[in-house]
Amino acid sequence: MPQPPFSTATALALTAFGLATPTHAGLLVHLPYDGDAANGGSLGAAHDGSLEGDAAFAPGRLGQGVAFDGSGDYASHGGPPLSGDAARTVSAWIRTAPASGGLRSISTFGDNGNGAKFDFDIDAANGGHLEIGIGNGRTDGAGGPGVNDGAWHLVAVTLPAGGDRDDFRFFIDGAFAADSAGNSNDPVATAAGGLFYVGSAANSPGFQSFDGTVDDLAIWDEVLTDDELAAAHAVAVSALAYDAGDFAALKAVHDAGAGAAVIDDTLQWTYATGLQGGAGVTGAAPNFTVVLDAAAGTGAVSEAAPDPDSDGDGLLDVWEQQHFNDLDETGGGDPDGDGR
Predict the structure, then answer these.
(1) How far from chain centre, in Å, is Cα 329?
(2) DSSP track, 79-90
(3) Which of 8, 211, 261, 275 has the greatest number of beta carbons closer than 10 A?
(4) How far apart are CA 329 and CA 112, in angstroms?
(5) d(Cα 223, Cα 227) in Å, to the nearest integer?
(6) CA dist., res. 4 & res. 328, Å (int)
(7) Cα four-point dihedral sign 283, 287, 290, 291
(8) Residue environment code for 297-326, b if the CB has 16+ CB neighbours within 10 A, otherwise e
(9) Residue 67 and residue 52: Cα distance in Å, rounded?
(10) Is the pLDDT of residue 327 over 90?
(11) Distance (Å, rounded) from C-alpha 301 to C-alpha 282?
């Protein structure tokens, strides 16, 4: 979705109903690519981007994505959102089919020095598996089964804080696929002064250009758990059709063990315990259950969202209560429109 997971209106509505409003700085970058290249993550406009070359918006897995033709086009998004050996999770929905052409970069940040870049790649010529290139070192052959089959896949890679080249873990469609154990322990030292591209490697703009479509790219400053990555995939492919920003709202409620989040103005999610089954989503609107920690039996449950304008006058109830201590005003009582 193009908007951040928590709007001012949502925060006001939650406050009106006596609910805590969760936030989650962990989602640094969220690129829904729904008609623009804006960043919906916590780092904001610093990572808004532009499409370069022949890159163009096209149908994605969740709304729109960006189509790349493999011939030097890319999206540019400012500087690196993370640096050094900081913990991270990078994920994206991708669709690609080429079985030749060598490495194809989903995204990168940093620069091309030793250990200084973070290329998230597909090795199209060798089975289409996932790889990480860090500059003078790669996780060759580490990334599990191929994803260059023309179908949509949610791909992800994690790195713990202080990790090196043998500490990556790869996920495909919410399931653990492979790790990079057995590679050398070359340090990860992502450059803070480099760049951030989607559809290109760090070597130069358009290098290892992606051939296919990228949608809903997300970068977190933490390692998402196996259950969280399974749930992120499940809520995306379910009737909810939630993107990474929406999932961040669910995760914030779960991490806090309290509070609530309203998503898409339709469902209100609250923390839940005593849940059964594996990580994922069950139920039907408006009563869904998302398990985020199967071992603990915890997650979030939904119900129909409360109406933030219960009297239908076009003004948020909480705004009317704040300014007039009642719900008797009409639109004429809000000439500057700040209560709408």
Answers:
(1) 40
(2) S-SS-BT--EEE
(3) 261
(4) 60
(5) 11
(6) 31
(7) negative
(8) ebbbbbeebeebbeeebebbbbbbeeeeee
(9) 11
(10) no
(11) 10
Output the six-digit token pair for 17. 């109903």
H or E stretch at 248: helix 244-256
> Encoding tokens for residue 42?
């916590």
Peptide bond into 205 cis (omega under 30): no
pLDDT at 20 (0 to 100): 41
Taking the C-alpha atoms of residue 113 and residue 183, their distance in angstroms, rounded to an integer, is 19
Instruction: Return the DSSP state at 151.
Output: S
Angle of helix 244-256 relative to helix 226-237, nearest 10 degrees, comes to 130
Q: What is the pLDDT of residue 55?
A: 98
Instruction: Tell me how many helices (H) and strands (E) the chain has.
Output: 4, 19
Rounded to 5°, angle at Cα 162 from 133 and 42 = 80
For residues 199 and 68, is the Cβ–Cβ distance under 8 A? yes
- Other C-beta atoms closer than 10 Å to the C-beta of 129 total 23
Q: Which two tokens stand for residue 177?
A: 């696929």
DSSP state string for 18-62:
T------TTEEEEE--SSS----STTGGGG--EEETT-EEEE-SS
C-alpha 285 chain-centroid distance: 23
pTM summary value: 0.88
307-318 per-position pLDDT tens digit: 777 788 888 776
Element (H, E) at 288: strand 287-293
